[in-house]
Write a structure and sequence with these properties.
With 264 residues, the protein is α/β, with parallel strands linked by helices. It has a single domain, classed as Alpha/Beta hydrolase fold, catalytic domain (Rossmann fold, 3-Layer(aba) Sandwich). The protein has twelve helices and eight strands. The protein has an eight-stranded mixed β-sheet, with helices on both faces. Helix 1 packs across helix 12. It is globular. The relative contact order is 0.16.
């Protein structure tokens, strides 16, 4: 689906019925990352999955920041006449979810923080982002996909499920150069969300792949410790894109979480 919001094209999916849940993809993904969830969860919830600016069917347009991405999500909810939603963000999508909570807490009914972390980039991390920008500008999206794929999926997936590795590689290399560079700049500028954790008062579940090398389990344990009454789920044999690698396991815990919110 395509929406026109303030003269800007936004690609999104909107399927199912019931209480709304918004799925926010990571870097450098697109909304098809969530296809395994939309197909399963739409029977119990209204599933909304946007392409963040610069990815999928949402064209690149600066300026780029986590707050801008969050405002984009709020504007899409306005367009769809959705007052509040559970917000599920993976990796960079988790950073956007933190910004959405800070800027628009009245829009957030619950949080699912998947394969993400609260802290900002270290000096080493910032340098890696700069190197990735240079790589992107010099060699394009396919080089980014080649560089990222081994960290994006877990060891078990690389060994047992080559079709998932290939599908993820194709998604990464489909990202436009301008969107990749803009997102990297936004990632570099993002604030430390650690102080935000204590302010979160909505039901929250943290999900992480057991083999996640980019945001390891310890990062999710820190989120769990910082968010009162949160729930932590570790997905066995999955890496950074746990929802894509072990979709049935993630769909199970996600359905349980949504059912708990519906009953509360």
């Amino acid at each position: 689906m395509i929406a026109w919001i303030h003269g800007r094209q936004v690609g999104y999916d909107d399927v199912g019925s019931g209480d709304p849940i918004v799925f926010l993809h990571g870097f450098p993904h697109r909304r098809t990352l969530w296809a395994p969830q939309l197909g399963a969860i739409m029977v119990r919830a209204r599933c909304i999955a946007p392409d963040l600016r610069g990815f999928g069917e949402t064209p690149p347009a600066g300026p780029y920041s986590m707050d801008r991405y969050a405002d984009d999500v709020a504007e899409l909810l306005d367009h769809l006449r959705v007052e509040r939603a559970v917000v599920c963000g993976l990796s960079m999508g988790g950073y956007v979810a933190f910004s959405l909570w800070r800027l628009h807490p009245d829009r957030v009914r619950g949080l699912v923080l998947m394969d993400t972390k609260a802290t900002a980039d270290t000096a080493e991390g910032l340098q890696k982002r700069k190197d990735m920008i240079a790589l992107t500008q010099e060699r394009g999206s396919s080089a980014v996909a080649d560089a990222m794929i081994s960290g994006m999926v877990g060891k078990s997936t690389r060994e047992r499920c080559p079709e998932i590795v290939d599908a993820m590689h194709s998604m990464l290399e489909s990202a436009p150069v301008e969107g990749i560079v803009g997102a990297l700049e936004a990632l570099m500028k993002r604030v430390d969300s650690t102080p935000t954790l204590a302010t979160i008062t909505v039901p929250t579940m943290i999900v992480v792949g057991e083999e996640d090398a980019l945001t390891p389990v310890k990062d999710s344990e820190a989120l769990h410790a910082g968010i009162a009454e949160s729930r932590l789920e570790i997905i066995a044999h999955a890496g950074h894109v746990s929802n894509f690698e072990r979709s049935a396991a993630v769909n199970h815990v996600l359905s349980e979480f949504l059912a708990g919110i519906s009953l509360s």
